[in-house]
Amino acid sequence: MWIVKRAAFYLLVAAIVFVAVFPFYYAIVTSLKSGTDLFRADLWPTTVSLANYRNVLTEGSFARNLANSLFVSGAVVALSLLLGVTSAYALARIRFRGRSALLFIILSVSMFPQVALLAGLFELVRMFGLYNSLFALIFSYMIFTLPFTVWVLTTFVRDLPVEVEEAAILDGATPWIIITRVFLPLMWPALATTGLLAFIGAWNEFLFALTFTSNNAQRTVPVAIALLSGNSQFEIPWGNIMAASVIVTVPLVVLVLIFQRKIVSGLTASGVKG
Amino acid sequence: MTGMEPETARAAHSPLRAQRVRSAWLFLAPMLLVLAAAAGWPLARTVYFSFTDASLADLDARQWVGFANYFSVLHMPSGRTLYDGLLVDPVWWRAVWNTVRFTVISVTCETILGTIVALVLNAKFAGRGIVRAAILIPWAIPTIVSAKMWQWMLNDQFGIINVVLLNLGLISDKIAWTANADTAMAAILIVDIWKATPFMTLLILAALQMLPREIIEVARLDGANPWQIFWRVTLPLIRPALMVAVIFRALDALRIFDLIYVLTPNNVNTKSMSVFARENLFEFDKFAYGSAASTLLFLILALLTIVTIRIGRISLDGGR
Questions:
Q1: Record: contact A272-B248, CB cut-off 8 A
Q2: Domain B89-319 architecture
Q3: Using one digit for the tens of pLDDT, what is the confidence trace for B181-194?
Q4: What number does CATH give the domain A61-270?
């Protein structure tokens, strides 16, 4: 009886792992096929070819799209962390009137559906001449990275011991000195978590990138992959699409696996964004 | 949220306190400005556009039309009365129905599956770390990439799912999963459940790991079987965390766009409220009408958000 239970349990575990991993595995297998091999549903690659990867990276604009995505996501992370750290200090350590109202507003903004901002943002982006520019994306991505960065960092700073700050205050340090010299060195774990989550959010964003850019040179990778097309309407380049998908996903999967524990604690601490 | 400030330092130096409050606002100003410019202002403009007849080609040549985009009554010369606007648009109501149906089914499945996987991961067994890493993979994959991966696996001609089902004799003909009226929504649900269950699992697992082991131990010594322990002890204890996770997922599901736009383009059986709004804004040259749809979507979510924060507070207080 015990053995049957144990076997059933491991069968369930195996099923979970299979379902979680198989689609990505199959994308890798597909990306390594070429020619007519593509249209045979094999569970493992019979011949390995890197032709799809070569095509994707040399033909078309995919390399440029990768650079765009890196630039946008990097800038979004840097800006959110900069604005987030100072705000978190103010919200967590200084008592002033309207603080809870501010926290409430910040939390509400993180619930905004992106579509509700689309019309207004489009007007704004056009007014400032940012249409089809990466800066339009950096600006609009603040909507979803900033609230949760501020929220998570505020929770983190609040839980740091009071003593670290008292000594500095008695020494006459200004708030800016306190942030940079006292808090910043202690905040690295929280910064790594929120930075990574902001990076993933910006790297994956689709709606704004689709709407605010109009040509291949300015697109980010999610839009580029969604719009990858073949020579004709009826010929979808599945090999290339899968190669591009693997290229953009592998760095994320590696990062997520390295920072597993931090991400899990960050997600549960904020509970705000998936 | 209170009492964390260095009380002694504050009481001793009152000018210092004034200086600290000043610097607090100084520190918050850039963040608040960005949020106001990127979220507050655009939202207000969207609502404003929904009361005009603005078109994409010329946003500036617009006139105030009141509630006409939402609802209007036309009296025809022939004596007939016509109703117009979003509130009587069957395509919009279809999108609302699709979104609600999608949200209810996907969140229900994700909660049940997430609880099962979390219970498995909460048990001690060899290789637990590997399983936990494996379930993070669907969460880490960009939505567009998962849409494309599944689109390929669900491909009617060459997709592995059709091939396997055919070989097992479960289907007699290949199914066009993403194009068929009957299966398009199922395809969307499969991909979303695959991608979002890990998030659910992680939140539930965190709640499970906070439970005191003794409580479950005591129940077991009292002769309760695992089934009873789950329903009578574990579930009531993790319920507050479960509710918060469910509401966050539901808010996310109600604004779904990417997956539907890529996996089942132009399919009336899966079109969500977000897809409907964007389509009118930028593809049908009905900018004002799309703005009205966006505004309604915002109102629905705002209502739910207020409920969320209420429930969130209650659960926080209950936990203390």
A1: yes
A2: Orthogonal Bundle (1.10)
A3: 889 999 999 999 99
A4: 1.10.3720.10
